Amino acid sequence: MKRVVSVSLGSSRRDHRVEVELMGERFEISRRGTDGDFERAVQLLKELDGKVDAIGLGGIDVYLYAGKTRYVIQDGKKLMDAVRKTPVVDGSGLKNTLERETVYYLREHTDLLSPGTRVLMVSAVDRFGMAEAFAGVGCEVTFGDLIFAAGIPYPIHTVSELEELAAKLLPEMTRLPFHMLYPTGKKQETQDEEKIKKFGHYYQEAQVIAGDYHLVRRYMPRLNGQTIITNTTTADDVTFLREKGAGCLVTTTPEFEGRSFGTNVMEAVLVALLQKPVEEITPRDYLDLLRRLDFKPRVLPLR
């Protein structure tokens, strides 16, 4: 049996373990949260190194992409460097493949993304592939990176402007401690009421809200039937979205035993199946394997 483990800076309350069969291989897939404790995450990574088939880094990014430029988050790189033997990924490979394909699938097979659909991405620099895809299928996009990360009420409406701002800001921002950029540990379980009061109208004006679940949740006001396109969700998350008034949930990763795992976990599973050095895996490798596995977005009506 192949073992894949996600080591996350997020809450340990979201830990989960499943056994599944994929392409004739049995997998044990698990998530282990460290409640925002960076040193505990490093120690756990060292303990797992060489003892599992692949590791995903959760609750943190290592690589951000904008256009053809890749930016490296220093805290994420420190975690990755703690692993010497086992393949380790952060999910960015799937964000540039699976999540693009999710947008194209929804455009072709559902009525959720007709041209002109108003889409809010709470943060787009961590999902540049999805951002490009929304723009490419004719959605009216608002990228909220400055609004929600920095509290600056400046919506970004084009991919080119997003790329330009990324080039100016990310070289410095990626050097900051990661907890300043993204909610870790118990912060993932709370909402930012101040920003909800100031900026909640961006959610209410959108028809589709997309991006990392913890960021989407943190700034979410009362909704009126919006579609949520995101990644990792548990049964409790589905209840939360339903209570908030969301109309539909789309998860980009498949559901196993009542929850969808993060892109880092699923990328680690693909790496274990491909059995190639991570640096040699191409987007085409991921896309071909995703099609063989027949991974499709989960579309769940909430009303």
| Continuous helix count | 12
Q: How many individual β-strands?
A: 15
Helical residues, percent: 25-40%
Q: What is the SS-derived class?
A: alpha/beta
CATH class wording of the largest domain: Alpha Beta
Shape: globular
| Spatial order of strands in the largest sheet | 9-8-10-11-12-15
The CATH architecture designation of the largest domain is 3-Layer(aba) Sandwich
Explain this structure to me?
A hairpin with a 2-residue loop joins strand 13 (255-256) and strand 14. The chain has helices spanning 38-48, 74-81, 92-95, 98-109, 128-136, 145-150, 159-173, 193-205, 213-218, 235-244, 263-274, 283-293; strands spanning 2-8, 16-22, 25-33, 54-58, 63-66, 69-72, 88-89, 118-121, 140-143, 208-210, 227-230, 248-251, 255-256, 259-260, 298-301. Strands 9-8-10-11-12-15 form a six-stranded mixed sheet, with helices on both faces. Strands 2-3-1-4-7 form a five-stranded mixed sheet, sandwiched between helices. The protein has a two-stranded antiparallel ribbon with strand order 5-6. The chain contains twelve helices and 15 strands. The protein has two domains: 2-91 and 262-296, Rossmann fold, CATH 3.40.50; 98-251, 3-Layer(aba) Sandwich (Rossmann fold), CATH 3.40.50. Helix 4 runs parallel beside helix 5 (128-136). The protein is 39% helix and 21% strand. With 303 residues, it is α/β, with parallel strands linked by helices. It is globular and about 50 Å long. The longest helix is centred in the middle third of the chain and has 15 residues, at 159-173.
